[in-house]
Specification:
Blueprint lengths: L1 H10 L4 E2 L7 E2 L11 E2 L2 E2 L24 H8 L4 E3 L9 E2 L9 E3 L4 E5 L7 E5 L8 E3 L13 E9 L9 E11 L2 E12 L4 E10 L3 E9 L4 E9 L4 E6 L2 E7 L12 E3 L2 E3 L2 E3 L4 E9 L5 H9 L2
Antiparallel strand pairs: 1-3, 2-4, 5-22, 6-7, 7-10, 8-9, 9-22, 10-19, 11-16, 11-22, 12-13, 12-19, 13-14, 14-15, 16-17, 17-18, 20-21
Length: 305
């Protein structure tokens, strides 16, 4: 254990930040932090020899690195924010928003992979060839969207392969279930566009009676893309953004979304344990908002990578 702790400590950058209320007791290893802020180096109550914030069990903790990007995201008050920067061996996807529910990784998700940001934070990689992989928040009623409600979905994605079929999608993040054969809920993902020879970013919503998909710009492989989709619930107007730029608009004709028993999922569609439409590649810095991010907010997020 001592060897592991020493290796982890070497990766942690000393600095000050404001932790969640239920995190560990923090101590500085160099200098003092201003009142109300705590040092990155921490001692966990549940496993005192380990560095990093506590988890609800004794899993490996996340690598806590101060990030200008995360500060900008948190300033815009997301309902949920999953940085996906856990260390190898973690089983929980830590939610930066207290009380909003941490996620659970399926066993084969690869953690500690190169991330999208300019700092040393990491990402999660999903490889569907060995089975659909994702991180899910079960019993996630707090993520339901009622009709005429607004929301935004945001993530950094690095696509490894396209799913070259028009009947299935690669999911990034959402809460999409079904009432019989009709989708209910919402999801941000990718859909194949044969004429472009690429996949497009897309938003799908359904109310259990009818479902609809709108698509934005096509995305290339093997590079990081910052993707955002916003839905203004009253007029059902959708906007897509890729790397801070407008990447398409549209208007839904079906109700914006509906309450669904599906789990909130990152990297797949999870209908209460039935996993499908897995993403192939890496996902980082996932956020869900009950507001419409403005073009200026989206650009600010992208520029602070």
């Amino acid at each position: 254990m001592g060897t592991v702790v020493a290796l982890v400590a070497a990766l942690i950058v000393t600095g000050c930040y404001s932790p969640r209320a239920e995190d560990c007791a923090y101590t500085c290893n160099a200098g003092a932090c201003p009142s109300g802020l705590y040092c990155v180096q921490a001692v966990c109550r549940d496993e005192p020899a380990k560095l990093g914030p506590c988890t609800s069990n004794s899993d490996a903790g996340r690598d806590v690195i101060p990030s200008n990007y995360s500060s900008v995201v948190l300033a815009d008050l997301p309902t949920a924010y999953f940085r996906l920067g856990e260390m190898v061996g973690a089983t929980q996807a830590f939610n930066e928003i207290a009380g909003a529910g941490d996620g659970a990784y399926t066993p084969s998700v690869m953690l500690g992979m190169p991330g999208a940001l300019s700092d040393t934070s990491t990402a999660a990689t999903f490889e569907p060839s060995t089975g659909v992989q994702c991180a899910t928040v079960t019993s996630a009623a707090r993520y339901d969207i009622s009709n005429a409600a607004s929301f935004s979905l945001e993530a950094w994605i690095h696509i490894e392969t396209y799913l070259q079929t028009t009947t299935s999608h690669r999911e990034i993040v959402g809460k999409l279930g079904a009432v019989g054969a009709v989708d209910s809920g919402y999801s941000l993902g990718l859909q194949w566009e044969p004429s472009a020879g690429m996949s497009r970013i897309r938003l799908r919503v359904g109310d259990g009676v009818a479902a609809q998909t709108l698509a934005g710009a096509a995305l290339s492989l093997d590079t990081w893309h910052h993707v955002v989709a916003t839905l203004e619930g009253t007029n059902k107007a959708v906007k897509f953004y890729v790397n801070g730029q407008n990447a398409g608009t549209g208007t839904f004709t079906v109700d914006s979304a509906a309450i669904t028993t599906a789990d909130f999922a990152i990297g797949c569609r999870d209908e209460r344990g039935t996993l499908r439409e897995g993403f192939d590649g890496s996902i980082d810095e996932v956020a869900f908002y009950r507001t419409v991010l403005s073009p200026g907010q989206v650009m600010t997020h992208f520029q602070n990578r």
